[in-house]
């Protein structure tokens, strides 16, 4: 019996290509959810709307005018899966409500241990890691360096939009 390989997604951004491995075994709900958005071409034309150089880059839900795209249902938070928010990992973005993640994700550009699961209360539940950059971390590092400002009531928004042109599952 061959071990089933993890799905790999290629994200074409306006700054380059990023290849992402998804941890289907450790975060099945998050991965299934993410891939459903990928298959729908939902991410195409969205931007990285929150970029904090010493923290993470976040995208997957807003267009260049900072308008949110309609999402599917919120999913269960899988932060208890033992995966850590270390540099290069992808995690589901959410509000302060534990099980509120929909389409948005972030890529940790440094080790962010404070985002890991550390308790059952909402403030300590953590953020579910579901994938990792396997190629193109240099692109992510370029994104984290862009100049940011305020736009549409949001902070840390790239002055020049950084687009997700497309995301495709590598078959």
From TrEMBL:
PROSITE patterns: CSA_PPIASE_1, CSA_PPIASE_2. One of its GO terms (molecular function) is isomerase activity. It is an enzyme of class 5 (isomerase). Its EC number is 5.2.1.8. It comes from the Bacteria. Residues 5-169 form the PPIase cyclophilin-type domain. Pfam families: Pro_isomerase. It catalyses: [protein]-peptidylproline (omega=180) = [protein]-peptidylproline (omega=0). Keywords: Isomerase, Rotamase. InterPro entries: Cyclophilin-like_dom_sf, Cyclophilin-type_PPIase, Cyclophilin-type_PPIase_CS, Cyclophilin-type_PPIase_dom, E_coli_cyclophilin_A-like. SUPFAM superfamilies: Cyclophilin-like. Belongs to the cyclophilin-type PPIase family. PPIases accelerate the folding of proteins. It catalyzes the cis-trans isomerization of proline imidic peptide bonds in oligopeptides. This is Peptidyl-prolyl cis-trans isomerase. It comes from Geomonas propionica.
């Amino acid at each position: 019996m061959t071990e089933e390989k993890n799905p790999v997604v290629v994200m074409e951004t306006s700054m380059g290509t990023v290849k992402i491995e998804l941890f289907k075994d450790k975060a099945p709900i998050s991965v299934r959810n993410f891939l459903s958005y990928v298959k729908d071409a939902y991410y195409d034309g969205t931007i990285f709307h929150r970029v904090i150089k010493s923290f993470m880059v976040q995208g997957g839900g807003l267009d260049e005018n900072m308008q949110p795209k309609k999402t599917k249902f919120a999913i269960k938070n899988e932060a208890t899966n033992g995966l850590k928010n270390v540099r290069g990992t992808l995690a589901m973005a959410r509000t302060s409500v534990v099980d509120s993640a929909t389409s948005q994700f972030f890529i940790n550009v440094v080790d962010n241990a404070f985002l890991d699961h550390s308790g059952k209360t909402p403030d300590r539940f953590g953020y579910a890691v579901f994938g990792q950059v396997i190629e193109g971390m240099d692109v992510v590092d370029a994104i984290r360096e862009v100049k940011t400002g305020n736009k549409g009531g949001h902070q840390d928004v790239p002055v020049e939009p950084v687009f997700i042109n497309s995301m495709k599952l590598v078959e």
